[in-house]
Structures are given as C-alpha cells and as structure tokens.
Design brief:
Radius of gyration: 14 Å
Distance between the termini: 41 Å
Structural class: mainly alpha
Strand content: under 5%
Order of helices and strands: HH
Number of helices: 2
Shape: extended
Length: 53
C-alpha cells in the first residue's frame, strides 16, 4: 500500500552558505533528505518556541 501523499507547500529561500553546508553535512550523516531534515528542524524550533511562551 503506497504512503498517503502529504499536503505540502513549496519554499524557496536564500540562506548563508555556511548554514547550507551544515545542512548538507547533517543530511549526509543522517541519511535524511534536505526536505525531511528542514521539516524536523523547523518543527522542533516551533515546538520549543511554543513551550517557552
């Protein structure tokens, strides 16, 4: 049975080269795609932000 399709939005951003290189290294180390990595990192940051309020 195929995975259900995600509801998604495209995101085009410019980030510092150093941050992009860190993201690439993180993805190489974890085997995650950049999309999944960024989704998880942002979700964690939003959760921490929400809990701090």
């Amino acid at each position: 049975m195929p995975k259900p399709k995600k509801d998604w939005k495209a995101l085009n951003i410019k980030i510092q080269s150093e941050v992009y290189e860190q993201l690439e290294k993180y993805c190489e180390d974890t085997g995650l795609s950049k999309t999944v990595a960024v989704e998880r990192i942002l979700s964690k940051a939003f959760k921490e932000y929400k809990e701090s309020k």
